[in-house]
């Protein structure tokens, strides 16, 4: 990672928190700013206007002058400097709503690393990340395809997964942010077994589901039609599921993705597992609209995010919906509580 993204203020400055925000448990909620040219700052401004944050102390990893810009533009109340990890230090960056810029990627990346550094000092903190532009952070020299991979590397985690949560159903994916042409070669029997056992453990630990039920979707149209459109189901997925059942994992499938969601079968299981990103995320986002949350399982800290992107097309227009971020905020509190219960 480029040296200019390492937080130079040091932990000492970050530990000197305002008395109002001191917390003997170290259980802080940290909001990253997201891309400063996207809707992240607007969402946080609206969130602070609406919510009193009595649950736990809330801090922002980002630059106050970015938020002040949107406060003036959108006629929203300013956020006091005491809520910022850097105590309101200026960035000298002027937002350009809707623009993909290297400088915006630098601001977004510094916010993420600031939150990660703080969480390593306060490991019971939870991080809620606002949307970034992958293109912008890559222009800035941060070569990651998304938050998930960046957090995985930063915490040296060996196994992580995206779990998309709503009050009605949850979706995960065997594979992450990889090209479609690499999907088939990434899915082995061993990989499926390890991934589904890992996801089952997360459902028990993070969501307090005592006996999770899983459903897995097939990779090929109509689950391969007996090998006519592909062999991954018969050669890899079905044998893996048979072994998982002998280990006590309650898993059904593989199911043809189109028929599965058309019959609303997603509501019958604790977690639906797709073979690749868009296979599960398109129906999830269509059905959940503004309320879905992305949770990264497998990290030592709780990390959630809204399930939408930077929305450059509406940035700076006051149209951003805060529902998904509110849900991400609430889920972070819930999972943090569930994890604490596990160690009591």
What would you note in describing this structure?
This protein has 344 residues and is α/β, with parallel strands linked by helices. It folds into 2 domains: 1-158 and 292-344, 3-Layer(aba) Sandwich (Isopropylmalate Dehydrogenase); 168-290, Isopropylmalate Dehydrogenase. 40% of the residues lie in helices and 13% in strands. The protein has helices at 10-15, 40-50, 64-74, 102-121, 134-139, 147-154, 183-186, 189-206, 232-246, 257-262, 277-288, 323-342, and strands at 29-32, 58-61, 126-128, 161-165, 171-173, 213-217, 250-255, 271-274, 293-297, 302-306. A 10-stranded mixed β-sheet has the order 2-1-3-10-9-4-5-8-6-7. A hairpin with a 4-residue loop joins strand 9 and strand 10.
Summarize the structure.
The protein is 40% helix and 13% strand. It has 344 residues and is an alpha/beta fold.
Keywords:
344 residues; alpha/beta; Isopropylmalate Dehydrogenase; 2 domains; 10-stranded mixed β-sheet; 10 strands; globular; disordered N terminus
Radius of gyration: 21 Å
Total strand count, please?
10
Number of DSSP helical runs: 12
User: How many structural units, i.e. domains?
Assistant: 2
Secondary-structure-derived class: alpha/beta
Just give the CATH class of the largest domain.
Alpha Beta
How much helicity do the residues have? 25-40%
Helix and strand pattern: HEHEHHEHHEEHHEHEHEHEEH
- Portion of residues in beta strands equals 5-15%
The name of the CATH superfamily of the largest domain reads Isopropylmalate Dehydrogenase
């Amino acid at each position: 990672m480029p040296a200019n993204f390492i937080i130079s203020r040091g932990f000492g400055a970050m530990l000197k928190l305002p008395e109002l925000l001191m917390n003997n448990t170290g259980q802080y909620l940290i909001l990253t700013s997201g891309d400063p040219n996207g809707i992240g700052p607007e969402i946080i401004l609206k969130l602070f206007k609406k919510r009193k944050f009595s649950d736990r102390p809330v801090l922002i990893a980002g630059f106050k002058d970015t938020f002040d810009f949107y406060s003036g533009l959108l006629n929203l109340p300013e956020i006091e400097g005491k809520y910022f990890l850097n105590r309101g230090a200026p960035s000298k960056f002027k937002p350009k709503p809707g623009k993909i810029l290297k400088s915006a990627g630098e601001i977004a990346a510094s916010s993420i690393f600031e939150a990660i550094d703080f969480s390593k000092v306060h490991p019971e903190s939870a991080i809620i990340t606002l949307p970034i532009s992958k293109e912008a952070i890559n222009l800035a020299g941060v070569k990651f395809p998304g938050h998930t991979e960046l957090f995985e590397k930063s915490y040296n985690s060996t196994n992580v997964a995206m779990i998309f949560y709503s009050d009605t159903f949850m979706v995960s994916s065997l594979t992450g942010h990889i090209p479609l042409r690499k999907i088939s070669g990434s899915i082995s029997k061993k990989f499926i077994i390890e991934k589904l056992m890992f996801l089952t453990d997360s459902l028990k630990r993070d969501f307090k589901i005592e006996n999770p039920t899983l459903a897995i979707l097939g990779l090929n149209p109509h689950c391969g039609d007996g090998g006519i459109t592909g062999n991954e189901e018969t050669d890899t997925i079905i044998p893996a599921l048979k072994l998982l059942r002998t280990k006590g994992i309650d898993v059904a499938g593989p199911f043809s993705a189109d028929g599965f969601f058309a019959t609303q079968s997603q509501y019958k299981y604790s977690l639906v597992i797709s073979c690749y990103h868009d296979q599960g995320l398109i129906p999830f986002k269509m059905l959940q609209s503004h309320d879905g949350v992305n949770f990264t399982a497998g990290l030592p800290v709780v990390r959630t995010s809204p399930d939408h992107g930077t929305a450059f097309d509406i940035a700076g227009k006051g149209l951003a919906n805060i529902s998904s971020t509110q849900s991400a905020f609430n889920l972070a509190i819930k999972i943090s509580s569930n994890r604490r219960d596990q160690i009591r």
